[in-house]
Amino acid sequence: MAESPHTESTLSPSDANWWRQAAVYQIYPRSFADSNGDGLGDLPGVTSRVPYLKALGIDAVWLSPFYPSALADGGYDVDDYRNVDPRLGTLDDFDEMAAALHAAGIRLIVDIVPNHSSNRHVWFQEALAAPKGSPARERYIFRDGRGPNGELPPTDWVGAFGGPGWTQVSDGQWYLHFFTPEQPDFNWDNPEVREDFLTTLRFWADRGVDGFRVDVANLLVKDLPADLPSQAELDAMDRTSGTHPLMDRDEVHEIYAQWRKVFNEYIPPRFAVAEAWVETPERRARYASPEGLGQAFSFDLLEADFDATQFHRIINDNLEQVRLTGSTSTWVFSNHDVTRHATRYGLPPLNGRNVKQGVEWVKAGGPAEDIDLERGLRRAKAATLLMLALPGAAYLYQGEELGLHEVADIPAEQRQDPCFFRGADYNGLGRDGCRVPLPWQADGTSFGFGANGAHLPQPEWFAPYAVSVEEKDPASTLSFYRRALALRHELQGPETLEWDDVDENVLHFVRPGNWHVVTNFGTAPVALPDGEVLLASAEVENGMLSGEATAWIRR
Ligand code: GLC
């Protein structure tokens, strides 16, 4: 395989549909590149790596939160929605980064976190200083406690990361937080909250941001009568009818209809993608409506095993859903919340469980003994090559292009993820293992991440995965991703797919332009159809595709 060519972005600046089949690369900014040697990645670090992103051949960057934050939840606890964390840079640095990305033909999507602010946000500080029942408290969800002196929380609700869902303040009232106590939930019935987010959207759109990733888009609207249900009652409630008190309520779409009007004030209209872990593809489709956010993440493939039957069903279901909404499907295997897919696929089948926590991994006794890392990466490359050939948008997470595995052995005292410390309803490792700073070079204090170490410890085994090593190796995972993304640009046409052959081990589909895609989920080699093999994730010998591999063929 030759060194991959530099591909110009084929997307024109006025193209309103650029997102439909974009390859979007997620940057977790604190762990990408550190320009000032403080151990934390920053925005100038991103700017310095734009040539790398361009050579990779992606269409857009999705930047996880870079706002001022105490990092109680990796930046998803936002102090100020319209500023940059001083440790990550300034607004000028942001503008420089946006300009550099745009000059390279790469669009920029920022993360919006509307369900909760941080407890350091000026509004929450005002709420704490203000009395019960005051307008300042009305921007959040404050309630009196139960018990003779209100010493018990209003309900027994458990937060998503474990621990109580309410925290008491000095005058005895309690506030609701779906996540950590440092992430108080906004009251979305409050018009000031609604207005302020419109201001935030315009603020970033005016700065040239092309789109938004909307964090836990399904949680904003809540129905909280005086008499609140217990956790057990909540758990028993239907989550598919749009009437659950806390999640995926139908009224949430009124908010996104308002946001859509703001997006459409711009040329091209600003794009948005919902993060909504909802119960059914039908519920998800509502977030992807053109009158709403326009696109929604599907985590179906991410939760699936490496299994032809599951992949076939999921691909069909998702394509059917977008046919109904007019959106495009999204595909993703890895992000900052889940165990890296190269590692997951080296574990025994998870049947969709514990994707987030890697519990099985811990139970299995750790990576050295029970994970087949080589097999995991082989399957991950096969799955990724299949994904990159599907109609719709492909979301990639920093480091997967290097074939990185999850880092399991981070000492407890160096971990940062609140999931790890709060215990939640699991005993996993939390999410730090996929957030370890990237290796850019095979040596140095932080593998070239920065001049003075990294905020999460990088393992010795990172060295052969370093960009500087993989860049020179035509057989590396990085060269494979570059080649795949470049070819995808050439081959991507109308958003249709036809199945050619489907059995329990092999999926074969065809995209317009005689682009044939064959994935062998089994372990025995299978015969490929005649044609030119454009790219394969593993050996093709005498027309035979090896086990757990994908090939792209032009016929
Ligand atoms: C989303 C983010 C996750 C964060 C949570 C709370 O799920 O992806 O990282 O912890 O929301 O904001």
Beta-strand content estimate: 5-15%
**What Rg is obtained from the alpha carbons, in whole angstroms?**
23 Å
**Which ligands appear in the coordinates?**
alpha-D-glucopyranose
Task: Choose one word for the global shape.
Answer: globular
The total beta strand count reads 19
Roughly how much helix do the residues carry, as a percent range?
25-40%
**Poorly predicted segments:** 1-11, 356-360, 362-368
Mean pLDDT: 92
- Order of the strands making up the biggest sheet: 9-8-7-3-2-1-11-10
- Secondary-structure-derived class: alpha/beta
Helical run tally: 17
What does this structure look like?
The chain has about 550 residues and is α/β, with parallel strands linked by helices. The protein contains 17 helices and 19 strands. A hairpin with a 2-residue loop joins strand 17 (about 540) and strand 18 (about 545). Residues about 1-10, about 355-360 and about 360-370 have low confidence and may be disordered. The structure holds alpha-D-glucopyranose.
What's the topology here?
Layout: E1 23-27, H1 43-48, H2 50-56, E2 60-63, H3 91-103, E3 107-112, H4 122-129, E4 142-143, E5 166-168, E6 174-176, H5 191-206, E7 211-214, H6 231-236, H7 252-263, E8 271-274, H8 281-287, E9 294-296, H9 300-303, H10 308-325, E10 330-332, H11 341-344, H12 359-363, H13 367-370, H14 373-387, E11 393-397, H15 418-422, H16 467-470, H17 477-491, E12 498-502, E13 506-511, E14 515-520, E15 526-527, E16 532-536, E17 540-541, E18 544-545, E19 549-554
Parallel strand pairs: 1-2, 1-11, 2-3, 3-7, 7-8, 8-9, 10-11
Antiparallel strand pairs: 4-6, 5-6, 12-13, 13-14, 14-19, 15-18, 16-19, 17-18
